[in-house]
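chain below, 461 aa
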Amino acid sequence: MPRPHRDERLAPRTPRILHLDVDAFLASVEQARHPHLRGRPVVVGGPPTSRNLVMSCSYEARAVGVRPGMRAREAARLCPGAVFLPGDARAANAKREEVARLLLEASPRVEVASIDDFFVDLTGSTRLLGCAFEVAAGLQQRIRAEARVPVTVGIGTSRTLARLAGKLGKPGGVAEVLPGAERAFLAHLPVEHLPGVGHVVRRRLSSFHIRTVGQLALVSREVLFATFGSLGLTLHARAHGIDDEPVEAGCWIDGEGRLAVRPPRSIRRDSTFEPEEGRREQIEAMLAWLVDRAAARLRGHGLLAGSVEVRLVHVDTRTPAQRRANPREALLRARRRLSSPTASTDSLEAHARTLLAELPRRRALVKRVGISLLHLRGTVGRQGELFSDPERDREPSGPASAGGPTTGCHAERAAALERALDGLRARHGFGKVLRGASLPLLKEHPLGPDGFVLRTPSLNQ
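prediction:
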């Protein structure tokens, strides 16, 4: 018979939400892969001889001032003995799957919030599993022993409170906000800790002398809505400890023992140029590469994209005063709703190129380019065609087409080709097959089995 514990005194169905965050995820993955790096300062983000940024760093490096987002060169100055690594996307994804499998043994309601943090809903499992704090501590020990990565766990009655508790428990702790103590916990918390309060919102609140969550809670919903729109209503609810967003079962073990994940709501890919780029052919080639990666993931989930968005960020040459007046002016974006949803790389690339051409030209170098596939939905059966279209289905003339089919549906042949390419890349690596539109990148970027080695190779997906 299980021993009595504190949670038995809670009202039935009291929410018990865990938030697990892998500490210094990318650096911890490298330390798990290379045990001799444990206890040493590790920096992920490329060599310090370039202008790379620090993507992740171990707490041994953080102890001397290294932080994610700073220049790798500055990190090397602060920590001369640091080990700099580019990171590995496959290893990171495998480690995320390993952690998710361990969490699914505790609850079927596990949500993968990002590459390094998870939510687990323990509501209603008190009699089966026991105290939420003990469950969290047990999971933390198992992940450290079996996955060999450190995690911090926060416990609360909502997703927001669990995440905030975890922030106070870093690194490697277990922190809990007890039911009924939410308002007291939030009262003196810095307002920037609240999810949704970024740099712009924080500065605006600071201009009103609002610096703690408790002070924010004293502001009426009407004032916050008039100031921040719908975000103001969300901030008002979170400042009072109210967060009704449920933990969605985002992963499960399928019948073949594989980890299945919930299809994404959108797919986004970005790449930063190092150094900044002014050649149009390189920008278009990078955009084509990002579309290729995004479309492959789209088909992997059996989805179709209903909209395409292209983003372009130029080097900001404005004065500090101009930047404060319009912080996002350097970002250009264009979006288009497609007449018919598609997963075709060729079709998505054509739309992306059109959107890129529609963006205004600027006399400044391009710093970053990105693509988003939006309004995703599942695929449906396709109606075949009785007759072919000679103009659409015309085969190329010459020896290349000798012995090949002379009629048929172009869309069906294109889909068969993409399935073959996806299969080849799944077996041999994404970088083993390149489309012609991406070939100009070979002049500037080394090509590995998983694709081009970009400025952020650890996140190259």
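Residues 392-408, 457-461 have pLDDT under 50 and may be disordered. The CA atoms of residues 101 and 259 lie 7 Å apart.
thats it, cya
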